[in-house]
Fold this sequence. Notes:
Elements lengths: L33 E13 L10 E14 L3 E3 L3 E14 L5 E12 L4 E8 L3 E8 L5 E6 L3 E3 L1 H6 E12 L5 E11 L2 E15 L2
Antiparallel strand pairs: 1-2, 1-12, 2-4, 3-4, 4-5, 5-6, 6-7, 7-9, 8-10, 10-11, 11-12
Amino acid sequence: xxxxxxxxxxxxxxxxxxxxxxxxxxxxxxxxxxxxxxxxxxxxxxxxxxxxxxxxxxxxxxxxxxxxxxxxxxxxxxxxxxxxxxxxxxxxxxxxxxxxxxxxxxxxxxxxxxxxxxxxxxxxxxxxxxxxxxxxxxxxxxxxxxxxxxxxxxxxxxxxxxxxxxxxxxxxxxxxxxxxxxxxxxxxxxxxxxxxxxxxxxxx
Length: 204
C-alpha cells in the first residue's frame, strides 16, 4: 500500500481543563475527517443457529458509510494531552440492503507518547479500547486483549478475547481497514474479520 505522509503536531496547547478540536492542531487524525463510503466490504462472522450451521464461517459482502468529525480534546491527570475525532460507522448487507452493524467511538491521538487509542461501542452491549504505537505515517495499528466492557450475556455467549485493527490511507486517497476479533461463541473460538476500502465523498 502506498502511504502518504501526514504532518505531525509540534505541540498540543490544551491545559489541565482545556478543550481543543482536531482541526485546531495538525495530527495524524486530521486527514481522516470527512464522510467515507465503500461497497467492497466483506464480513466473515459465525453463522447463526437458524442456519443449522451455528459457528461456522459465513461471509457477507457489505457496503457502508463512515462519518468522521473533529472531536474534543482533553488532558488526563494533568499530563496526558489528547485530541480526537468521532467515528460513526453504519454497515449494510449487499444481499438485502439491511443494516447489520452500527459502531460509534473516538479515535484518539496522544502526541507526547506517539500513541493512538480507539474507544468504541456497538449496540450489543460491548465496548472496547484498542491502543497502538504510531510509527508509520498514514497507518494506524491498534489492538487489545483486555480492554473490553461486555454485558454478562455477551461474556457467556459471545465473549470478546482480542481485537486488532489496521487502517491505512493510500496515496490515491482511499482508506482501507481490517478488523480482526477473536471470539468465543457457541462454545468455540472464532475469528471474526471485517475488511473494506472506502473513498471520501465529503469533507476536506
